[in-house]
Amino acid sequence: MAKPKQDLKTFKASDAQKVPLSAGKKKKGQPAAGDESTGAGFPTIERLLEQEKLDWSGPEQRLEALRALAEAGNARDKGAVRKAIAAYERTQDLLEFLWQTKSGLAGPAPK
Questions:
Q1: Residue 93: which of 59, 44, 42 has the closest Cα?
Q2: Torsion angle of C-alpha atoms 86, 90, 93, 98, degrees rounded to 10
């Protein structure tokens, strides 16, 4: 049987089920929020920049595959592929800039 409209006006979803809130407990295996070993949230980029030499081989292979798809793909997909290619190229430029900045900050190697 349907409830009268008056009952539905005062209904709140939060009244139906109470969910207890945890007080920010740390999950197992996760570092603390103030832990200095954590980065800014970009682990892949940080890993690339911490290497001795900037390794762009994986993304370069995907970029080549996108370029091949741009030439052989259908008209509907070509726009999205061009946008993806532009994003990869901008990312590569950004990584090269960050690499140069890191190298400049580190200065020449001590003898």
A1: 59
A2: -160
